Amino acid sequence: MSPARFVSTGQSSPPVELTTALLEGLAPDGGLYMPEALSPLTSVGLSELKGGSLRETAERLIAPLFGRDAPAATHAAVIDALDFDVPLVQLSDRLFVLELFHGPTLAFKDVGARVMARLLGQAGSGGPIFVIAATSGDTGGAVAHAFARVSGTRVWILYPKKQVSERQERQFATVGGNVQAVAVRGTFDDCQRLAKGALGDRQFLDGAPLTSANSINVGRLLPQAIYYAHGWAQLPGGSEVVVSVPSGNFGNLTAGLMAKRCGVPIDRFVAATNANDVFGHYLRTGAVNPRESVRTLSSAMDVGNPSNLVRIHYLYDGDLGGLQRDVAHSAHGDADVRLAIRRVADELGYVLDPHTAVGLLALESELRERPDAVGIVLATAHPAKFADVVEPILGRAVDIPPRLAATLARSVEAVEIAPTLRQLRDTMQGG
Ligand SMILES: *Cc1c(COP(=O)(O)O)cnc(C)c1O
């Protein structure tokens, strides 16, 4: 059997193996990589998911996602990365929350970033793989912790000096070891320009492999399908199942649709968005109409031109009717988010972060139309991560989990550079 192949949504680059897709990030034709085939689980395979641990679920999903002949190293990378819980919490009769925030930086991005880090750690041919990530705040933490102590990788996190919050800086600039924070004297745009400039130059580090840990990498996407299966496996069973996904770049929803292709019996998805609701137009017309993003309380979903819509389009081969059967859309503004956080805390004793609150509102509206269904909302972040939003709404402090408290107690260690490629190269070669 030949190894699983990855194809570009642009459809004019040749298929590649996983390692190439990981190292390239973007395909040469500008498209995003997708698995060439997703092989569904058998009904026996499905029934065996029930009641299993996250790692047991992951073991069973690796073949459908990464190919039947995925090497032992791929299994090891995925299993090693998933060393935290993804519990399903019941809020009421028909309402469940899948908590994706028990990883090191309290957000679902830990799942994809940790698996990708370990896959990349194996991808080198002898020497280390160099990784750059530009961050305006949030992604840096997930990437820094994901790569911490992953041998075979050396990581530079570029961020605009004095333009991220202290809490954010402490999540990516206190890791040490193979992860170096670089405070750029400039803006986030300068950081992105430096990252792109370095990645676009094959000789930047004298030919050493250099890649980016951003969210379009297929290595971050695939592992996210695993927790959809794990969420379904923890449900009591028997009913129609709806899953609501708080969405920004739509990587998370894409992974859910891939889980469905692998046979996970989710009947319907709800794409939950804030005021940035490009998806509504797309779902009605099949056309993407990008807009300037607007700022909302659910800031990680403030995306005006979602990069993964090309993947969804590819997955459905342009069949809009099929997509509409599988996915609903529901958008909710900040005022409703504030009320929802308040109401759910008062009535159900559960504290939502602002992203999960958008998801919950979307789920409630879909469940009203489907009286026999049960619903899962993906909790994409822990409320302590967005304490500045949640605490004023509740009028009280939110408990900080010990792993976040420990990170916040460490001191920041960053090198500082002017926003030039030459200084970036000197830093990367010297350190
Ligand atoms: C990134 C993020 C999202 C959006 O996920 P996408 O995969 O980009 O749609 C939602 N919630 C939180 C907390 C996030 O960090």
Mean pLDDT: 93
> CATH class of the domain at 85-105 and 221-394, please?
Alpha Beta
- Give the helix/strand class: alpha/beta
List the strand order in the largest sheet: 4-5-13-10-11-12
Strand content: 15-25%
Shape: globular
Query: Number of DSSP strands?
Result: 14
Q: Could you tell me the radius of gyration in angstroms?
A: 21 Å
How far the N terminus sits from the C terminus, by CA atoms, comes to 43 Å
The ligands found in this model are:
pyridoxal-5'-phosphate
Count helical runs.
19
Largest sheet: 6 strands, mixed
Q: What's the CATH architecture name of the domain at 85-105 and 221-394?
A: 3-Layer(aba) Sandwich
**What is the fold-level CATH name, i.e. the topology of the domain at 85-105 and 221-394?**
Rossmann fold
Assign a percent range to the helix content.
Answer: 40-55%
Which segments are poorly predicted (pLDDT under 50) over 5 or more consecutive residues?
A: none
Structure overview:
- This protein is α/β, with parallel strands linked by helices and 431 residues long.
- It has a domain at 85-105 and 221-394: Rossmann fold.
- 42% of the residues lie in helices and 16% in strands.
- The model has no long low-confidence stretch (mean pLDDT 93).
- It has 19 helices and 14 strands.
- The protein has a six-stranded mixed beta sheet with strand order 4-5-13-10-11-12, sandwiched between helices. Strands 9-6-7-8-14 form a five-stranded parallel beta sheet, with helices on both faces. A three-stranded antiparallel beta sheet has the order 2-1-3.
- 48% of the residues are buried.
- The longest helix has 16 residues, at 354-369.
- The structure holds pyridoxal-5'-phosphate.
- Residues 107, 109, 138, 246-252, 300-301, 355, 380-381 line the site of pyridoxal-5'-phosphate.
- Pyridoxal-5'-phosphate (PLP) is lined by residues 107, 109, 138, 246-252, 300-301, 355, 380-381.
